[in-house]
Amino acid sequence: MLVLGIETSCDETAAAVVEDGRAIRSNIISSQVEVHEAFGGVVPELASRAHIVNVSPVIDQALEAAGVRLEDIDLLGATIGPGLVGALLVGLSTAKALAFALDKPLVGVNHLAGHIYSAFLCDAPPRFPFVALVVSGGHTDLYGVEGHGRFQTLGRTRDDAAGEAFDKVAKLLGLGYPGGPLIDRLARQGSEDAIEFPRAMLDGDSLEFSFSGLKTAVRTYLIRAEKNGDALPLPDVAASFQAAVVDVLVAKTMTAVRRTGVRSLAVVGGVAANSGLRRRLEKASAQAGVSLAIPPPILCTDNAAMSAAAAYHRYQAAPHRFTTDHWLDLDAKASLPLESWG
Ligand code: KG4
Ligand code: ZN
User: Distance of CA 61 to CAs 25, 70, 90, 95, Å?
Assistant: First the structure.
């Protein structure tokens, strides 16, 4: 079954063709970084406008790269939330128009489910039941995944998401946007132990996260250093900050693994591209005897291959549900929980 995935939840216009939820035939991502970087973050209205310009050419490229025609597509999957409503509407409306014209079913994909299903595109996909850490710009969530579409929330952030902390600290350091990859690169030249930033573990065994205190600690450090006229070792700040985030993410994820007794772990979302996090997770999961599914970095940040994979599995679970009446009624949602995919 050939699935065309469309993803426009934030600032990437993406389309992909995936076969049977597993084999990526094409994966096209058009980034809008140049549109937003002057503003230091994503400007929703500009994102919507750029999606309108890019969405059809990106779909054409995805079909061409996959060597298929539109008529060969069996199923469509488009992200419906959570995300920027105007941005989501561009992808969803395009998908509805195509599905209607082709007389093919359309699945509305929860973006968090999309990220989790990126793990199924790994060479060694996770096995049920597994724990999933979703670390992106908007989310830092731990889920227990018992089967396709059966997600149980184990913990989440009380304030900033990990990716948001990376982006805000990068701004404080004057690095630009998006901050995650820039801090990742700078951290390689610094020392993790140079500055002791706080690790908010929140009473021992808790699976909740908090990153706003860490961001404040970095700000306070920078202000004090400036006041004292100290030289600012930016690579050390980046490395020490990153180590604090990674320590908390790894510790809580491994606590969730221990507590649930699963043997399989998936780590997904933009922050899963972080080299420090990947290294530490590989070590921790090997020590715990747990198999780790962490997608290649291009599948960690927003893409449509993951949306196609999620759409495939959701469709397979209940094909009769996806009637024209059902999907014509789909709407974009700024927030959309992931307890179940419906
Ligand atoms: O999953 P994603 O592409 O979009 C959302 O759904 O939010 O995640 C984007 C986030 C941004 O905050 C970005 O700074 C972060 O992922 N990110 C990284 C890295 N690459 C992207 N954070 C740390 N290290 C990276 N290498
Ligand atoms: Zn995302």
Answer: 12, 11, 17, 15
